[in-house]
Design brief:
With 257 residues, the chain is an alpha/beta fold. Helices cover 39% and strands 21% of the residues. Strands 1, 2, 3, 4, 5, 6, 7 and 8 form an 8-stranded mixed sheet that branches. Helix 1 runs parallel beside helix 7.
Length: 257
């Protein structure tokens, strides 16, 4: 059996609609600036990001030291939400760079676009509606793909990584934070759309996750465990039983001979 993908998509959009509109409502995962600082974001650089984008941050780790965005580069954020990582990246690539966010939750996109319109990085950021398994981005047009706590929500992770590889230029980088497991999850968890939307049910076993990245043609260079705590009792139980954890990793797209 497998998760009902239509039900899953509806659950994910419902949850992250609430994250965009009501970040103070209380969720089973942590949100906001306190979370961002605890996983490693630079407080001084967070000051340059719209406050409302930071308030809806729901990432699971930090990877910008691995991504190493450089002035003038083009970055793509998979599952950009209200835009915190897009705005954060824009401070690193500068006025000559570009950061594109892709998301399929319209409330998140509307919030991110509203914040961009009134922010100093408006000329360098763009938010596009789309799916991570069918990116609205040209081939070989991106220097670095980033993502934070989102790919675990995707049923076909191999296709997402194949899309990331497609849009990356040769020698481009993939840097992300996500939820993985030490051992495969039980079928009852994997088939539960609520647990997928909670960033548990879709977590891949770490070896399978790395294999999906490498099948796309990317080469994994670094993987590390993040300082990330689960809030709900169910998530904490899964952490103990299945080794559910947050990791950050860096991969690159080699130059073809």
């Amino acid at each position: 059996m497998a998760v009902d993908t239509q039900e899953l998509e509806a659950k994910v959009q419902q949850m992250y609609r609430e994250v965009a509109l009501h970040p103070d409502a209380g969720f089973h995962f942590e949100l906001g600036r306190g979370l961002a600082e605890s996983v490693g974001y630079d407080p001084a650089r967070l000051d340059l990001v719209p406050v409302d984008a930071v308030a809806s941050f729901a990432g699971v780790g930090h990877f910008f030291d691995l991504a190493d965005p450089r002035p003038g580069e083009t970055l793509l954020d998979l599952g950009s939400g209200s835009g915190m990582d897009v705005f954060y990246a824009a401070t690193l690539v500068g006025a000559a760079g570009q950061v594109i966010g892709v998301d399929f939750t319209r409330e998140q996109l509307a919030k991110a676009r509203r914040l961009a319109a009134g922010h100093g990085t408006a000329a360098t950021v763009e938010f596009r509606e789309g799916r991570l398994d069918d990116l609205p981005v040209d081939d070989a047009s991106v220097d670095c793909v980033i993502s934070n706590g989102v790919i675990n929500l995707c049923p076909d992770k191999a296709l997402v990584f194949a899309e990331a590889a497609r849009v990356l230029r040769p020698e481009g980088r993939l840097a992300l934070a996500d939820i993985v497991t030490d051992v495969p999850l039980a079928e009852g968890i994997v088939c539960n759309a609520d647990l997928w939307a909670a960033c548990i049910g879709g977590a891949a076993q770490v070896d399978d996750y790395v294999a999906a990245i490498e099948k796309s043609g990317l080469v994994v260079e670094v993987m590390r465990r993040n300082r990330y705590g689960f809030l709900s009792a169910g998530a904490q139980g899964a952490e103990k039983t299945y080794g559910v954890r947050s990791v950050s990793l860096l991969a690159h797209k080699p130059v073809q001979p």
